[in-house]
Amino acid sequence: MIVLAGDIGGTNARLALVELDAVAAHIVRDAKYASRDFAGLAPVVRQFLREGGPAPERACYGIAGPVIDQRCKASNLPWIVDARAMAHETGIVDTRLINDFHAVGHGVQRLGTEDFVTLQGHEPDPTGPIALIGAGTGLGHGFLIHDGARYRVFGSEGGHVAFAAHDMLEWGLAESLRLQFGHVSYERVLSGAGLAHIYQYLAEFTPESELVHEEMEHEDPAAVVSRHALAGSDPMCVKALDIFVSVYGRQAGHLAITVLATGGVYVAGGIAPRIVAKLQDGTFMKSFCDQGRMASVAERMPVHVITHPSVGLLGAAAAGFAETP
Question: What does the alpha-carbon distance between residue 167 and residue 296 come to, in Å, rounded to a whole number?
Fold first, then answer.
């Protein structure tokens, strides 16, 4: 079966024609588009289909935002996407929408050991719950629960719960963000924009490098912070990434003990593969395991960073292939 799969985020819309059977998936053709260059998802899909490839039998799009009754108001785009309207506008009768981390949940089940980096290696419970978290343009959450026969996947909007500061520095960050945005969610801290917010907060009371400031005027601020932090070339960028990774690990741990993720925790999203070296230095796992009386539980959970670049696409295709996503 040929499925048109979509991994639709606030920055990029990735589409692929995927050939699937019960065990294997092969990407026939894929393309990436800047999401904000289009007024909605249907124009992106029509352009992709015009560019060639076999006609898909089904379409399934993983989109960042809550999907209710096959309709989604995207979290970080001015789009409202409706599966019925998409079917009419693209000519693909069997069209489905799922949350982007619902897609990751289907994709993670098709990964091999070469597709992730392990941060904490323990033997997973083969039927235990699995937790998913990933920072990118936004902050995605999801989880998988085994029903006795197979894993069932659930997307979540846990990235929008209120940020809980851990120390005085984070309290100051939270207050600074509250004055800007009102409600301060974890996504305000754990996202590309969130990394920039952390840096900007530090700049309120720490001298800023002229070089970094100038680079931020011409580049994505989060990319500038990450580059200098990983290279160790700017102390404030190093501090900003330290805070980001510490908060990231703590929230991953919160999710892990919430669903009791004895089947494993998978860190996805666009940022993690770019900062794997930082995630491996102990900062992430120290915060992950800092769960009070549940620390010994967190310490026994397998934790992996997904490095496969197309896990969302493969997952959307797998969900499109399944009779019951």
Answer: 22
Helices and strands (DSSP H and E) totals, the chain = 12, 14
In whole angstroms, give the CA distance from residue 193 to residue 60: 28
- pTM listed for this prediction: 0.93
pLDDT of residue 325: 60
Side-chain half-sphere of 88: how many Cα atoms within 13 Å? 4
3 state SS of 28:
strand
* Bridging pattern class, strands 130-135 and 139-146: antiparallel
Task: Report yes or no: 319 and 107 within 8 Å, Cβ to Cβ.
Answer: no
Closest CA to 315 of 148, 192, 142: 142
Indicate the pairing of strand 264-268 with strand 130-135: parallel
What is the DSSP secondary-structure string of 112-173? -GGGEEEEE--PPPTTS-EEEEEESSSEEEEEEEE-SSSEEEEEE-GGGSBP---SHHHHHH
DSSP per-residue letters across 234-266: -HHHHHHHHHHHHHHHHHHHHHHHHHT-TTEEE
Query: Hey, what domains does the chain have and what are their CATH numbers?
Result: 2-106+310-321 (3.30.420.40), 112-307 (3.40.367.20)
Q: Residue 202 has which token pair? A: 């530090």
Taking only the tens place, the pLDDT of each residue in 226-281 is 999 999 999 999 999 999 999 999 999 999 999 999 999 999 999 999 999 999 99
Using the CB atoms, write b or e for 243-262: b if 16+ within 10 Å.
bbbbbbbbbbbbbbbebebb
The confidence band for 324, taking pLDDT boundaries of 50, 70 and 90, is low
pLDDT attached to residue 11: 87
Scanning 182-322, the segments in alpha helix (DSSP H) are 192-202, 210-216, 221-231, 235-259, 276-279, 283-289, 295-298, 311-321
